[in-house]
Amino acid sequence: MTVPVPAFLAADWWALGPVMALTAGLLLLLLLEFLPERPGGARSALVALAALGASAWSVWRVRDVRREIFDGMFAHDGFTVFFTLLVLGIAAVAVLIAWDYVRRTRLHAAEYQALLLAATLGMIVMAASNDLIGIFLGLELMSIALYIMVGFRRNLLESNEASLKYFLLGAFASGFLLYGIALVYGATGSTQLRAIAAFVADSPLLSSPLLVVGALLILVGFAFKVAAVPFHMWTPDAYEGAPVSVTAFMSAGAKVAAFAALVRVALSALTELQADWRPILTALAVITMTVGNVTALVQTNVKRMLAYSSIAHAGYLLVALVAGGAQGAAAAAFYLAVYAFMNLGAFGILAIMGQAREERVHLADFAGLGFRHPFLGLAMTVFLVSLGGIPPTAGFMGKVYVFGAALDAGHIPLVVVGVLNSVVSVFYYLRVTVAMYMEEPKGEPVALSWALPSRIALAATLVLTLWWGVQASDLLAAAERSVRGLL
């Protein structure tokens, strides 16, 4: 009797490379915890970096392969390759940022890095999924790891509170998403994006109200994960209560993964429903940009300020989705890449300033930083200028492409609102710069010591932020290639 070989064992095994590398690193880190002498931060970080490097290599070697795998549940295409490499790069920088921070704050290094790899694995699954069930599984893997990481400082009340709020609201949002998936399945008979797209194209819209309601519930679930208003309530508390290194990782990685999944769903499955979801996304974009920027104006805690800044940037990314088409999707992919690294750099400086039992994240803590530590002051200025969209930085080019896509699609009022919000954002970013160069520190300045990994992370993010500001063509071309297979 001949036993048929499952398709994934016969032909799709190569696609498991990135997942296997991360899983092996994750399991190794957990096994290291059972050693009589617990591994230090350096050893755990090296294991995590090795796993991330092996995963990136396994993706890069098959970067030109284009096919659906595991019976169409996942897609190995340019979009998957682009966002997998982006997520792995974010995770690598996050490991470098946490290297010395974990030691100084006395966190369990192996557990921390294992959770980071688990969250990264979930992000990759989200970006590669061609099926709503796969997206949901990746989302939950990422979310559960992040819930734990936010509350990693178990002895601090604010960390526990932030983790609990994030978990409760996240579970609520997951319920919306799962119910939306159930309704879409009930309407179309499938959870695969291509099958849903075929059903929508062949059926009158009014004959399937379940599909419309399901799509809206899925949008609500994604809106929570990208921190769009009014589903943003968790963001300031989670960012403030989490360790700075965790905030850096989740602010970049989680947003990239959630938007990657949202773009794939919108372009691959729900293109025919644009008349229904585009007005909703337009309203979300306007409200999200405005609430994020206006609320950030009154913050004195830089962590909370960057949290509201993250909300505002979600609004800019929604503008790209409203623009739609290949141009809007490519602009979103480009913006996600530049936002991730300039945001990682800003939070990396906050991590350097932190001490064992205290995080110096208030405006007053930045007084005189530009003179006491010139490189840190210069780097922070570049990151903030880029977040504000001022040339010649990557953030400026990102906004040019996003607003340009919306302008070409005829959304002139939305572009005007976006530009006005960008102008408003400059004020609160400059407050930090003013503190660094025009205010005297109160009390004795605290000496900062930052290890080589932190220097590498900071230098890498700084170079990318400046390089993509003057030479953005290569990244934009990669973003454009990545979205071609979705349309």
From TrEMBL:
Q: What does this protein do?
A: NDH-1 shuttles electrons from NADH, via FMN and iron-sulfur (Fe-S) centers, to quinones in the respiratory chain. The immediate electron acceptor for the enzyme in this species is believed to be ubiquinone. Couples the redox reaction to proton translocation (for every two electrons transferred, four hydrogen ions are translocated across the cytoplasmic membrane), and thus conserves the redox energy in a proton gradient.
The major lineage groups are:
Bacteria, Candidatus Eiseniibacteriota
Known EC number: 7.1.1.-
Membrane topology of this protein: Multi-pass membrane protein
Which Pfam families does the protein's record reference?
A: Proton_antipo_M (PF00361)
User: Which residue numbers delimit the NADH:quinone oxidoreductase/Mrp antiporter transmembrane domain?
Assistant: 129-424
Q: Which organism is it from?
A: Eiseniibacteriota bacterium
Q: Which UniProt keywords apply?
A: Cell membrane, Membrane, NAD, Quinone, Translocase, Transmembrane, Transmembrane helix, Transport, Ubiquinone
Q: What is its main location?
A: membrane
NCBIfam families recorded: NDH_I_N
Q: Which GO terms describe its biological process?
A: ATP synthesis coupled electron transport
State a GO cellular component annotated for this protein.
Answer: plasma membrane
User: Record's family?
Assistant: Belongs to the complex I subunit 2 family.
Where in the cell?
Cell membrane; Endomembrane system; Membrane
- Which principal EC class is assigned to this enzyme? translocase
| Residue ranges crossing the lipid bilayer per the database entry | 13-32, 44-60, 80-102, 109-127, 133-152, 164-185, 205-224, 244-267, 279-298, 305-326, 332-354, 375-397, 409-430, 450-470
Reactions catalysed, as given in the entry:
a quinone + NADH + 5 H(+)(in) = a quinol + NAD(+) + 4 H(+)(out)
What is the protein name stated in its UniProt record?
NADH-quinone oxidoreductase subunit N
**What does the record note on quaternary structure?**
NDH-1 is composed of 14 different subunits. Subunits NuoA, H, J, K, L, M, N constitute the membrane sector of the complex.
Q: Name one GO molecular function term.
A: quinone binding
